[in-house]
Amino acid sequence: MVECIVARDKGVFQIDLRLRPYGAAGSWSVPFDEFRRYYSLGGQALPYERQALVKLRWVAGNEWLGRRVEAHRDKFTYSDAPWDRENALHLRRRQMRELVKPGEINVKYSAGGIIDIEYAIQYLQLLHGKHYPELRSPNTLHALDVLHRLEIIQTKEYEVLHPAYLFLRNLIDALRIVRGDASDLLLPEETSEEFKALARRLGYREKDRTQAALKLAADIRQRMKNVHAVFLAHTIA
Fold first, then answer.
1. Residue 211 lies in domain
2. CA-based nearest residue to 136, from 48, 191, 71
3. Second label for 99, Cα 20 to 30 Å away, from 27, 67, 186, 224?
4. In the beta sheet, which residues pair with residue 186?
């Protein structure tokens, strides 16, 4: 069946077939009862797989089945089962240590990258979603708005995370457009022509291209520093 999917192995529209029960070792599709057994309090789903279901949503096919899957997701993901905070933080520390080389900045995986925003919000959705159904959203910014409205995230934190998410998303999109590779989110050297071109693409219009690049670099460092501080504030007990 895989030959029926026309997509580059690497690229902007890469299809990840591992996002299913049992990962690469599992079937491409599973009966609903097997899905329900795997994603259950006594099932085999790992803690990060419970978290990943936050992003699940029905988009096509049989709507009745899609809504049934979403309903089971809500019952499982937003249950009374305790959230393993230390396991989640261990995974995040491994990402920063193993996926980013010293001295490099990865807009997704480095401390303060967009993953910090997404994970912090998802952790809070897991902790509070049982009591606040409006938090059960796969949309990051909508969930952030609800967390702010419920005062789970304070205004000063919201004012860090909301613009930083938009800033980092624009930065990621610009990198992907330039490189044509969704997985390559490593920032180029700040003095390189590629970085100067990136600054211009993002709207830094100073006449001196070097100054524009320096301003972008400073904005990236400050925003990521602020994001990681909020991440730690909501994840370190």
1. 85-235
2. 71
3. 27
4. 106
Q: How far apart are the first and last CA of the chain?
A: 46
Cα angle for residues 221, 227, 232 (degrees, 5° grid): 125
Q: What are phi and psi of 169, to 5 degrees?
A: -65, -40
Residues 7 and 97 in one domain: no
4 vs 230: CA distance, rounded Å: 44
Per-residue pLDDT reduced to its tens digit, 152-211: 999 999 999 999 999 999 999 999 887 766 678 899 999 999 999 999 999 998 888 899
Say if residue 124 is in the same domain as residue 39. no
Decide if 86 contacts 96 (C-beta within 8 A): no
The first and second tokens of residue 101, run together, are: 């080389």
Reported confidence tier of residue 27, pLDDT bands at 50, 70, 90:
confident
Cα–Cα distance between 92 and 202 in angstroms, integer? 28
Six-digit token pair at 141?
């910014």
Which pLDDT band holds residue 15 (cuts at 50, 70, 90)? low
Alpha-carbon gap, residue 212 to 204, rounded angstroms: 6
Q: For 11, which DSSP code?
A: S
Tell whether 17 and 89 lie within a shared domain.
no
What is the length of the chain?
Answer: 237
pTM above 0.90, yes or no: no
- Give the CATH number of the domain where residue 98 resides: 1.20.120.330
